[in-house]
Amino acid sequence: QVVIISCGVTVNLAEGERKALYEKCEEYLRRLRDAGVRARADTRDNYSPGWKFNHWELKGVPVRVELGPRDVRNCEFVAVRRDSGEKLVRKEEQAVDFIKELLENIQSSLYAKASTDLHSHMVVADSMAELQKAIDQGKVAQVPFCLEMDCEDEIKKITARDADVEPGAPSMGAKSLCIPFNPLKKMDDASKPPCVGCNKPAKAYTLFGRSY
After folding, report:
1. Mapping DSSP to helix (H, G, I), strand (E, B) and coil, where does residue 188 land?
2. Which residues are in the Proline-tRNA ligase class II C-terminal domain (predicted)?
3. Which helix (H) or strand (E) is 33 found in, with range?
4. DSSP count for the chain of H helices, then E strands
5. Rounded to whole angstroms, how far apart are CA atoms 68 and 62?
C-alpha cells in the first residue's frame, strides 16, 4: 500500500545525515506496519530516486512517501498519490492517520471513477442492430436474452468483426457477462420482449460485451 523512498542521498551528504535519514525511513515503516498498513522502505542507494519512483509506480503502489535530509530536519514527509500524482506535505506526527485516510480516499476515488466509466458505457439494446452498434462503439449492452447457449453462440458469430482491431489482435464477438440485479430496463412479465438472437420470448435482460 505504501513505499517509503529515501531521497537526496549524494556523495556530499554527511554520514550523520545519511544515517539519520535511513533510521527515519525505518521509523516510518515501523509505525505504518504497527497501524496495519502494508508498507516497505526502499533505501537502495545504487538507484536514483527517479528510477525508484518509476519502479514502484509500475508495480501499482498507491502511495509513495518521499523522505530526504531536509524533510528529516523539518520533521515532515511528502506523500504522493499514484492515481493523481498530487504531492502532499505533512508533519511527521500526522503520518499514520493521514496515510490511512489517504488510502481510503484513493480507494473511494478509484471506485467512483470506475463506476462512472462503467455506467457511461452501458446501454440498453432491444435489437441485434442496436447491440452491434453498441459493441462497435466499445460499450456494453443490456439486451433481452433467452438464456440459451446455442443462441449466445449465434450472437457471438453475428457480432464478431471481420477485421482485426489491431494487427494480430482479432476482435471476438459479444458474450454474456451477467444478469444485472437492477437492469436499466425492466422485463414486462405480461409481454416479454423477443430475444435479440432468436426472437423467442426473453427470460432476462442480460449484459453483453465484447472480449478482446
Report:
1. coil
2. 128-212
3. helix 15-34
4. 6, 9
5. 20
| E strand or H helix that includes residue 115 | helix 95-120
Nine-digit cell string for 165: 482491431
- pLDDT tens digits along 108-156: 999 999 999 999 999 999 999 999 999 989 899 999 999 999 999 999 9
- Dump pLDDT digits (tens) for 11-41: 888 999 999 999 999 999 999 999 999 999 9
Radius of gyration of the chain (CA): 26
Q: 503520518: which residue's cell?
A: 95
Give the whole-angstrom CA distance, residue 45 versus residue 56: 15
Which residues fall within 8 angstroms of residue 199, CB to CB, at 6 or more apart? none
pLDDT at res. 120: 93
**Domains of the chain listed by start with CATH number:** 2-114 (3.40.50.800), 125-161+168-209 (3.30.110.30)
Write the single-letter amino acid at 188. D
**Three-state secondary-structure class, residue 75:** coil
pLDDT above 50: residue 45 = yes
This model's pTM is above 0.85? no
Residue-by-residue DSSP string for 23-91: HHHHHHHHHHHHTT--EEEE--SSS-HHHHHHHHHHTT-SEEEEE-HHHHHHTEEEEEETTT--EEEEE
